[in-house]
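To: structure desk
From: M.T.
Subject: fold request, one chain
Message: Could you run this one when you get a chance? Sequence is below, nothing fancy, just the single chain.
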Amino acid sequence: MVTTGTTVTDVAVFNGTDLLDGRYNVSIGESTITAISPADTAPPPGPTVDGAGATLLPGLLDAHVHFSGPDELSTLARFGVTTALDMGTWPPTLVATLRTAGQGTDIRSSGAPLAGVGGPHSRIPGFPAENLVATPEQARRCVAQQAAEGVDYSKLVLERPGAGGPPAWTPRPLRVEAAHAAGLRVVAHASHTGAVALGLQAGVDVLTHAPLDAVLHEDLVRAITDTELIVVPTLIMMRGSAHNLGNPALSYDHARNTVTALHRAGATIIAGTDANNAPGVPAAVPHGSSLHDELDLLVEAGLSPRQALRSATSVPATAFALHDRGRIRPGLRADLLLVTGDPVSDVSAARQIRSVWTAGRAVDVVAQNDRTDTDGANSHSHRSRSDHVAHRCPAEESTRGSWMQRISTSKTSPGPAGAFSNRSTGSAAIRTILPRSFPPARRGP
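Reply: Done. Structure tokens follow.
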């Protein structure tokens, strides 16, 4: 396939924010977009790709992925996912291999997350002992080491109160203040409303997972919006988890309705899947294809197709300071997805993939027509393999069997979510839910 100097002709363009009026020729240079011109002008010399009947999008960004090997980079790219935010891969040598693979999807990574010594993550086989912390000094050492290794943001595992995560009074000094001092955003795993409450109190920047135990209270939804928290709900993971765990108290409806409430309140929502190849987790979420399912689920939760596409292009690029991508504009990285039809009207059209480019390089693609099976309901699923090397962190996971038992017997409690470190604390509702011994946190620099 052609790579450099290609022009996609006579194509509709969703530029990451809106569908442009008319049709265009979009030229791709060695690694960047070089020109956008009306379709009735002659394209520059070089190969062309006919864009008739198609829409050109920025390459998609999956904001919650875990890796076991570099082959998953190619799988992601084949489905139009040109950037992936890794939320828990180790050892550092594997992360370095992924960063330097030289083909497929481009990644950013948190390295291994930080977790409490008594939580489910502490029992994941091979979980780095140095990332299990109980004191501020341990957290500072861990953050300093990860910053030296070049992580792009910091990942913190929060559990519901009493479930073995960092002690209720320690999340901020344990990780958040140390990470912010090192110039790193803090992403918090929070799959329970009680953990979401701790994240908001601690001052984290991003929360992943929409809780299954309850719909967030309206006051807490307001607090999330007021503090401009970024939420990555991973609905495809939460739907599969709710189905497979079989606990009536854990309902996918809670996750979906929370997203609906957050969206109506104006919260920033980003598409992410929790794609992983780990055995024993509640839902096997395949790389690449699952992001298209996530877009469908976001639309079902109330986002328009346009808003869902933004949640996987320009919005995460801005949120994670990836200013060279997420939009179609001359000078930006040539991460592009060409699909048949109009995904701005029907987001499922994003599955009808014609071509993908990563940094100007064309990749082999797969037209995905089937939905992902994370709960055993679809016989035409794109199942992920389970030959993993190092594990990750979906919704409160641990080892096979015992993970599901712990989750399915967990108690429920309401709670909210977190906020960027340079923002004020927001709603008094946070203080009514957290323990009295946990004073309201000040936002750091």
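Reply (cont.): Residues 136-149 form the longest helix (14 residues). Let me know if you need anything else for the meeting.
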